Amino acid sequence: MKTDILIVGSGCSGLYAALHLPADKQVTIITKADLESSDSFLAQGGICMLRDEKDFENYFQDTMKAGHYENNRESVEIMIRESQRVIADLISYGVDFEREADGSLAFTREGAHSEKRILFHEDITGKEITSKLLERAKERPNIQLLEYTTMIDLIEERNTCYGAVLRMKDGSLQTIEAGVTFLACGGIGGLYRHSTNFRHLTGDALAIAIRHNIQLENINYIQIHPTTFYTENEEERSFLISESVRGEGALLLDKNMERFVDELQPRDVVTKAILAQMEKDGTDHVWEDLRPIPKEELLSHFPNIVAYCREHGYDPETECIPVVPAQHYFMGGIKVNSDSATSMKQLYAIGETACNGVHGRNRLASNSLLESLVFAGRATTDVILRYNSIQRNPELFKKVRFEKYADAEEYGRLSNELVMKAIDQAEWIMEEEAKVSSEGRME
Ligand SMILES: Cc1cc2nc3c(=O)[nH]c(=O)nc-3n(C[C@H](O)[C@H](O)[C@H](O)COP(=O)(O)OP(=O)(O)OC[C@H]3O[C@@H](n4cnc5c(N)ncnc54)[C@H](O)[C@@H]3O)c2cc1C
Q1: For atom 51 of ligand 1, which residue has the closest CA?
Q2: Where are the CATH 3.90.700.10 domain residues in the chain?
Q3: 222 C-alpha vs ligand 1 centroid, how far in Å?
Q4: Which CATH number is 2-221+331-422 given?
Q5: Which residue out of 29, 30, 39 has the highest number of ligand 1 atoms within 8 Å of its CB and is therefore the one to mutate?
Q6: Which of 7, 68, 228, 298 is most exposed, with the fewest beta carbons within 10 Å of its own?
Q7: Residue 129: CB within 6 Å of ligand 1?
Q8: How far is CA 53 from CA 44, 58, 59, in A?
């Protein structure tokens, strides 16, 4: 196969990038599963937008504070500054955000936000955004969408990417030659037993990056979401109880039904408090009380959360629901610059797979859809500027040997192992460095 631009992943970042590429370029989007099975479809809470200039400093500080000030300041500024343009774009694609009675955009608030600056569509904002992007992509004659098509390797020589090796729906192996490749493969939740992510999101792009010496960054920066619905079935994808419910007044309670934490603190702080409380109480979960949220607000803003809880035996209108922390988001990833270019030529990384440093050590709620879209858009601008100097290398494709990919299960297992080892190693290095610096301080 041959294409101008290969996009690996059909979540919001991959689709948005495809829609921003010129109509005279042939774009091929592949996805490991069906088109609706991406984390972008699962986003509940919403997407941030800079409401007006007065909020810039507060929004910037909230993002930095949540990220423990390890954020890349330039990336944060870019994301905030470009937010209004991205939202205008989404509205032009048909995305329907909640409105006030006067027709203006309605905003909500989530944990660690000092202001209401989050746009939403009920509690299915991600589905609303991504399904509209998908509809628009399907209308474009230059965009081809291939389901159940998995990237298993990149084809590169001397640090320049020329395409990829794919496992097709029928299990056969093929190569695809591409002028430019975008990695838009999402997060790593599939590597964890408890995660809110789709199970097929296993950090494949990271394993490939490790094999090809593509630079990674902060790969041990992994966010645990404080509140997912507790279930005894450990194989199930964890269902998220959005932070917005706490933003609207929900409380966290221990086994004696007493509050033990300020619910609006950043995710990592609330997660730590819950885990400590569970240990103290000897329980597998804590309780979340959604009853302080006015009934009308609860039913209109969070209909899917209410329905899910009811289906699973709890009515949030009349009783508390059991919640537990689970792996949720990946702040680290393939290192990119502010145009989403990786350390390999002709290779970009966007969305959760990439790390441009926006989130620092911990992501502020509702910043990831926005970050995915802003930096996907910037990648396409960079590609357009550079496309005339793109190199092709058709000879290289004749040398590809498929034997090493033949055992799909074993290849996948080794890839997962590679990523987990790299995460553990990064964590170990960070702990050792922390020990050295604290010993230094004691002297
Ligand atoms: C339950 C939940 C709720 C969330 N709520 C919010 C929220 O309210 N606000 C917010 O801003 N963020 C939220 N997030 C985070 C946000 O949804 C994601 O960070 C964002 O959607 C990631 O988009 P993406 O395009 O990078 O990846 P995804 O949407 O995850 O898409 C990844 C794509 O890559 C494909 N893929 C992966 N590996 C391969 C491979 N080897 N070959 C081919 N295809 C591959 C997958 O099939 C998929 O199509 C939430 C996340 C979850 C899980």
Answers
A1: 43
A2: 232-325
A3: 14
A4: 3.50.50.60
A5: 39
A6: 68
A7: no
A8: 26, 10, 10
Which residue is closest in CA terms to ligand 1's atom 5? 43
Count CA atoms within 13 Å of residue 201 on its CB side.
27
Distance 253 CA to ligand 1 centre (A): 30
pLDDT per position as a tens digit, 225-282: 999 999 887 677 899 998 889 989 999 999 999 999 999 888 888 999 999 999 999 9
Question: What is the mean predicted confidence (pLDDT) over 63-77?
Answer: 97
Q: Is the CB of 13 under 6 A from ligand 1?
A: yes
pLDDT in tens, 425-437: 999 988 888 888 7
pLDDT of residue 118: 95
Which atom of ligand 1 lies at the shortest distance from residue 126's CA? 17
The pTM of the full predicted model, rounded to 2 decimals, is 0.92
Share of the chain above pLDDT 90, in %: 88
**9-352-25 Cα angle (round to 5):** 40
Q: What is the pLDDT of residue 267?
A: 80
HSE-CB at 404 with a 13 A cutoff on CA atoms is: 7
DSSP assignment, residue 108? B
Residues identified as active-site: 267
Within 217-352, where are the H helices?
243-247, 267-281, 295-301, 303-311
**What CATH topology corresponds to 232-325?**
Flavocytochrome C3; Chain A, domain 1 (3.90.700)
C-alpha span between 348 and 66 (Å, rounded): 27
- Contact between 390 and 346 under an 8 Å Cβ cutoff? The reply is yes
Tell the residue nearest (CA) to atom 20 of ligand 1: 40
Which residues lie across from 341 on neighbouring strands? Answer: 348
Q: Please tell me the residue having the least CA distance from ligand 1 atom 13.
A: 43
Q: What is the pLDDT of residue 233?
A: 77
Cα–Cα distance, 317 to 292 (Å, whole number) = 9
- Please write the tens of the pLDDT for every residue from 381-411: 999 999 999 999 999 999 999 999 999 999 9
pLDDT of the residue at 237? 87
Q: Specify the domain boundaries for CATH 3.50.50.60 within the chain.
A: 2-221+331-422
Contact 14, 182 (CB under 8 A): yes
DSSP annotation of 195 reads B
Q: Is 326 in the pocket of ligand 1 (CB under 6 A)?
A: no
Instruction: Return the ligand 1 atom nearest residue 240 CA.
Output: 1
Indicate the pairing of strand 47-48 with strand 118-119: antiparallel
83 lines ligand 1 (CB under 6 A): no
